[in-house]
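Fold sample X.
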Amino acid sequence: MKDYEAVIGLEVHVQLKCDTKMFTRAAYRFGEPPNTLTNPVVMGLPGTLPVLNKRAIELSIQTGLMFGCHIAEVCKWDRKNYFYPDQPKNYQISQFDQPICIGGVVEIELPGPARNVMGEHREVKLTRIHLEEDVGKLTHYENGSLVDFNRAGTPLIEIVSEPDLFSAEEAAAFLNAIRLNMIYAGLSDCDMEKGQMRCDANVSVRPVGSEKLGIRTEMKNLNSISGVRDSVNYEIRRQSKVLEKGGEIFQETRRWNAEQGYTVALRSKEEAHDYRYFPDPDLMPVRVSREWVDCLHAKLPERPFDRQRRYLKDFGLPFTMASVLCQNSELGNFFEEAVTKCNKPLEIGNLVANDLLRELSAGKDAESQGLVLLPIKSGHVAELVKLVEEGVISRQIAQDIFPQMFQTGESPSTIVEKKGLRQTTDMAEIEGVCARIIAENPKPVGEFRAGNEKAINALKGGVMKATRGKANPAMVDKLLRKLLA
């Protein structure tokens, strides 16, 4: 297998974040009773005409801009003819030879050698992004199949990569990058469990050093990133073994069996299907002006990997923290707003990436509300950091205060005064507590005096517990060392 290398191309289908379907005002919401979100246009009944969803066009253009595509000045609509139970019209309105987005690249981030080390970044070339309508959903049973047309007609883009991926890890990173960018810019929710993002993977192998592509196989409708990674890995191994034994790879469509961990042939695949594409007679081509593109570009956020690089360089954050803060645009905005109020990015980043996310994950509805609607504000986090820096409270007290800030929206100063949490700086009082802790803990005292510097931490912890975190930590350390000497 060392004599062969893989070449992979992905076709990623992403539902756009629209309230209505591609060519009608019929709504689409996941989880509704089957076949309740249809109308005569969706079902292709005689006499119906499609009406274009402008919002879907705008989201498609913004997707192209996120990935550096050329936005076509004119794109048109074609009928892709095929007969399958999930397509009520027996054709799908799509884009054939004049897609809305051409070329482009997706920046991917590969796993690093350790969690706290950033992995390699590289760009994967795209062929095109085109806009179309989604099909219905088939559910297969032992003795038959059921079809739900709720999903039919939903705005869908297909992001087609060049054969520019060379491992299952790169394929997974490609999907992660698409998902991150689409969610970040509010273009799609990309929930693979809800079918909002699906993938077809084309895999071939060739002798190492060869420029000629091998015969490819295609895995259809993969609905998880782990499924893409595992199926691609399996196909690489399978094809390599076949070629090592002198066998032949056939171009075919294969199905991934996630439970058993193997692919199985479904049907042979010709070099190109004859879908009998022709321009849709009911839809005019779309002309995209430069002014329209510039307006949509201005509404896009900074791309997540660009933001991550800025956090590493300008704020000096560690990679683990920067990567967490850049996973969500709201979280990054919250962090930056707090930094403008208190220029302590590392301390604020720690509270946002750890304490805030912990509270969000613990609350059932908190994360779905978004940070804007939560009681806690960025100014509260900045104020909390200032109180610690000024010695008003200890870091331990700050940890205790944070959940109250999150739940009530009260400022940290209000909570400190209300509960009497100001740090104690009375040297005589603290010295008395230190003396008592030393007397009650002969073991760490003996270890410290024997040269074990870390043993003092046990004594510090005892003092902080006895004072309910109110003692000034620096003063505690100084007094303990004085008494132990």
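Fold sample Y, listed below.
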Amino acid sequence: MKILAALIKKEFLQIIRDPSSIIIAFVLPLISILIYMYGINLDSVSVRIGIKNDDANPEIETLLKSFGHSKYIKSIVYDNENDIEEGIIRSKLKGAVMIPNDFSKKLEREKTAEIIVITDGSETNTANYVQNYSIQIINNWLSTSKYKTLSQKPIVTSDLRVWYNEDLDSHYFILPGSIAVTMTLIGIMLTALVIAREWERGTMEALLSTPVKKIDIILGKYIPYFILGMLSMAFNVFMCCGVFQIPFRGNYLILFFVSSLFLFTSLGIGLIISTKMKNQFLASQVALGIGFLPSLLLSGLMFPINSMPVIFQYLTKVIPAGYFITFIESEFMAGTVWEVVIINSIFLGLLGSLLFIIVYKQTEMRLPE
């Protein structure tokens, strides 16, 4: 225990003396969470569209006002169709609504009246938003206008309710999910540089010349960075809940327990990289490729897993960040769901233990030939 305590103390002294570890553990998460909060927004708000009205009926002016009152669409009225076309070409507009001159007359005769909705298909998601919002605004206006008839009343009405994310704010699941991506990068990056740095600076040779055991070296690397990673985790949770007021409906003890299993797994991946790569630059590049990119692209945070090709859907089942994102989003928005907690904890615990064994097997106690 004295040897292990001495190694842990040495590692903490190196962390204090090397500001890069503090930057990775606290400055990097701060920058990351600010980007996720203010730079990434999956909610389409104030999408600019053009409106051209050829119907002189004063009642149609209320339809134009309905577009102006929508928080999702910023409408601009044009008199010239060419100006709308130019605006879409230059990406100043994401769509357009064209009201023909006989629109109100057809409504008065209770005939089918058409409105042309044009969308910019170069951005598929935005095009769908423009189309859906425009149709919804038109239907809402029609249900309250003088053209409303008994035949247009629906037989069944819907009472829409949103669970877990009542405000439909994408940041409520982006920020908790971003913690998993950040913790993956921190856990892998911190430990990926540890042993590689020892080999570069020549301190590994001095360490191997002492009567220290392999398990002491491994635990001496795991424990300090585990503590540093959990402090970073607490900092991330504070930023989400305390600063950005993201609602948290779960249990903090369960959150930090599963987070510790996830961090334990990430540290194992980083140490495996560090035992193989004896160059810090190379180790950092491999850590980014193995840790950051799969966690961001294949974890389900930004892109739905069920929309991926089948081979990638199977690949996501071995990515630890995917399990942690499922847990942490559920813990924040829905509260503690024991089925989610148990399944993800078992996977992370088994994978972390397997990685620990691999690290132990791969750690060399002699100088390379």
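Sample Y note: The CA atoms of residues 338 and 344 lie 10 Å apart.
Also: The beta strands are 47-53, 73-77, 95-99, 116-119.
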